[in-house]
Design brief:
With 141 residues, the protein is of the alpha+beta class. Helices cover 23% and strands 39% of the residues. It has a single domain, classed as Hotdog Thioesterase (Thiol Ester Dehydrase, Chain A, Roll). Strands 1, 2, 3, 4, 5 and 6 form a six-stranded antiparallel beta sheet that branches. Strand 3 and strand 4 form a beta hairpin. Keywords: Hydrolase.
Length: 141
């Protein structure tokens, strides 16, 4: 059985997220998207720190992001996560940041790769995702 409804994660815009005009600084949308993906994985019982102890992790390989409308200080937002494409060593997500009225403020396509982290912490090599993670991603796509 697959879950085709988007995962939703609430986020409030804090002062630190904004520029001098009180508008969310563009790079902070990437943080919002990352937090939602982390919480989405957590909702399926995947804790990234567990996999990091095995020197496995996800790295963002590609980002396409459209900023459509501004979010402002103290806004209540909702960030969605949907798995669009699943490969053996990578996954592509579509994500949106919406305001409290459901207006899309930002939309993004994120490609993340599963990697083995080298002993020195710097070297990374793309590797197939563990079966446990693949099964979760299949259920969610």
């Amino acid at each position: 059985m697959t879950d085709t409804s988007p995962f939703n994660w609430p986020i409030r815009v804090y002062y630190e997220d904004t520029d001098a005009g009180g508008i969310v600084y563009y790079a902070n949308y990437l943080k919002f998207l990352e937090r939602a993906r982390t919480e989405w994985l957590r909702s399926y019982g995947i804790e990234q720190d567990t996999w990091l102890r095995h020197r496995l992790g996800f790295v963002v390989r590609q980002v396409q992001m459209d900023l459509l409308r501004p979010a402002r200080f103290n806004d209540e937002l909702r960030v969605t996560v949907v798995v669009e494409r699943l490969k053996r060593a990578s996954v592509e997500f579509t994500q949106q940041v919406l305001d409290q009225h459901g207006t899309v403020l930002c939309q993004a396509r994120i490609k993340a790769a599963c990697v083995h982290l080298g002993e020195d912490g710097d070297a990374v090599k793309a590797v197939p995702m563990p079966t446990e993670i693949i099964e979760v991603l299949k259920r969610a796509s």
